[in-house]
Write a structure and sequence with these properties.
The chain is α+β, with helices and mostly antiparallel strands and 215 residues long. Helix content is 50%, strand content 11%. The protein folds into 2 domains: 12-155, Arc Repressor Mutant, subunit A (Orthogonal Bundle); 159-201.
Length: 215
Amino acid sequence: MDRIATKRPTPEYVRRFRGRVEGLRGSELQKKIDAEINTILDKNNVKKAPVFVPEIAESLLFDLFFTQFNDGTIGDMADTVENMGGIDSNRYIRVEKRCDNLRSFGTIAHELGHFFIHCNDADAFYERKPLFLLDVSPDDKEKEEQADLFKDSLQMPLRFLKPFIKERCALRRTWRSVLQDIKDEFLVPRHTARARIESLLHKAVCDDMLCEELP
């Protein structure tokens, strides 16, 4: 009897996540992701920062590869029935091997965003992340931005980020100091930490200003 090709199994909590964010955009999507991220942390027994995203990817049966791209790609992801593109895997994330650890972790988290938001059990999915979003369609650009929302929420979950900043507010620390602390504690680039904070506060932050608690 011929083998019936299928995707690798997807946990039920991933299916529930997909159902809860389906059709959402912008700030509504961000709020729902921030709320649902707690389930991912609980299912993977993540008790404190940093969130080690490679371990979460592996728990979802992703094969991780570090390779050298020569076309401006910094990562790609596939969730398919059959192996594709000469890769011996039907669920994988590949990361540009010349990236440092912070960029690599962010790329894996970004690709997991596509898995949680844009994949389903029935259809094959392939996505590549370019270094710059210059030559992509509006639809693909929106998907990339949504995956970045997930990335930032997974790497800097409010469960850990809010008390972390509150503690520093009590010490009257400036944003310059706090952003560096977030970089070191959550293992994210400083510009990514700034973007996350400004998104949550709905305003720009000045390095020399005292930090403020998140809403």
